[in-house]
């Protein structure tokens, strides 16, 4: 039986190739995601290990919850005291800042759209355990306020060489604080200019590696302190290097007694692990995100495999019946089909693993465009990748082939004596009942996930959507009958006898037609859902801005980070500007969870048009806060209550002075004063500046001139601001569509596969049609119409379900500020039109194959 199964498989090479397509693509996505994930983890683990000392001394709360350095520092004299320890070889003070943007020679920001733009002082201190860190590979280290060092990748991307003037924009420092680094504006000094130091050195990792897309600009210590610490003789952290034979833990224990209570010492290993784990946890959604789409591809692929094996088993039913007549048992026949599935799974997983390597390289290149550059890190091939690839490929294939294989046990040996062998089919009524049951379970799950107060509602929502999709797919042979009947009648009226034949072929095996359409249905259902979510999100943003936009212009950083208060000062001097309102925001912690906080000048509360329903806006003062209504209700806070926050400078307790209705202009639910914000240890950089003007002609041109040399900062009116808020949504939806494109490719291959195998199955029938006068063009038209029926059926089911899923999801998040539900009718119409195109294209190969069949040989085929 094993020999017979293998010979049967090898005798049908075209069918074997077609049936492996789906599993190859599904496994490729799983393998590519795991390879990329392991590469990402290894890259950041190695990076952080080479960017810490043996012992790292830092203030408690030295960084904000978002990972940016706080304003807390260490006194410079602590460096000498630590360097004098018996077990210390040296101690080096570091100055670090985030938001130090390097501008390329063509005036564009090099990075910062994900990985940070880092600035600081140059140090040749060795990394922990003597690991090589950044070293000068060209030129020399910086000396004086007019010199800077860049990392290799940044210098290359920006187009700079040693000796060039480099444009740098520090977001947290006043660029006029260091006179030697400031160009004088031609308009009398009004325009804010970037720093323009000379590039004197390029740093890199001699043993290989990179900063993974981050940029690094290093000045000498005095200049870095002027730029990032307001000229204070202090450091953001200190590295202590261990003497020979001294462990990190020994040195840490020796360092700790010298430190004040608000300063901590960590071993380099602990500091690296903490930084790496925090970052990897923050970006872990990337792996989850990609694996979700790998799962979608596998589910879609499973439909194709089920369909393929159903057709293959149906075509071999007489052969299997002969095996039964020769003495093969039901179990032997069953496992012969499963053996074929195993071989297909192994072949598909092997090819998918190879394709997964290319896909991992593609994912790496894709994320490099968003700033996450892993080009300096070789791909990592962990054992789990190979295990997962083969486990997924083999198990999914064998599981998908199980139902067709089970049907082989119902083939009676006597059927081998018949010319026409029909494979027994399960009752459509039973399938319809099972499908309705799955739909009901899915609806309950979806309701609980969207509206129930469950800790893991996202999983329930996902399982509910999957159950509904599988339920509709199971019941689709019955659900689709009216559509297929209408299609047959329409085709007969428009295309005559050929159209009638096409319609009858689709109706003849509704189970196969519906199963093929289901693969396309799943892809389009999810695409339509995302189209509605994206369009609704944009409509909600537009309405929110229209209702809450204050002032005439908004100044903000295109990367979402802070920028120098000097920019707002310069804007205030522009003719036509009547008032400048600033907002700052960052994040601390409350009860162990991230807590966003915002700050404004109490004198500007009225300018934000806050609707304070409890308490008084005038109560916003030092030691008090205003809370957003939804946050106060969820956390059960009232006016007069005390709220404790864990901030970079330590725990702080504030009195709730008022509660205001939710307003998207305020970026966080806790609103405090600028003084309290600075006292908490947050940088004094502006995140948003709102300008009130007298609408005089040319005011925006004059405002644009202030930031003409600062590409990270833009001035926008209401329409431009709304467009800027919509752009991330568009990018996210496009990325979703690109990933869903893989599922749609599998679905198209499924249609091609089904039609091709159907032509093989109907070889004799095709020969008879040609013999009675059907020409090649008519035959191609018949198969094309069959393909269009399948594609349109899948599209209609997918669009209908996608509309339902999209509306349900948007209704569930209506309390999160997304109150508008918008259905992009035009886009959904394009999806339906695209399904017709897919149907026509999918029929090209099968129709061509059918038209080229030799008539006499086709008629003689058994």
Automatic annotation (TrEMBL):
Q: Where is the MacB-like periplasmic core domain?
A: 17-257, 513-693
Q: Which residues cross the membrane?
A: 16-36, 289-314, 341-367, 387-405, 432-452, 464-484, 514-534, 732-760, 781-813, 825-847
Please list the residue ranges annotated as the ABC3 transporter permease C-terminal domain: 292-413, 738-854
Q: How does it sit in the membrane?
A: Multi-pass membrane protein
- Intracellular or extracellular location(s): Cell membrane
Q: Which InterPro entries match?
A: ABC3_permease_C, MacB_PCD, Macrolide_Exporter_MacB
Q: Does the keyword section mention Cell membrane?
A: yes
Q: Does the keyword Metal-binding apply?
A: no
Identify the keywords attached in UniProt to this record, alphabetized: Cell membrane, Membrane, Transmembrane, Transmembrane helix
Q: A Pfam family this protein belongs to?
A: MacB_PCD
Report the family membership. Answer: Belongs to the ABC-4 integral membrane protein family.
PANTHER family per record: ABC TRANSPORTER PERMEASE YTRF, MEMBRANE COMPONENT OF TRANSPORTER-RELATED
> Which named protein is this?
ABC transporter permease
Origin organism is: Nocardioides mangrovi
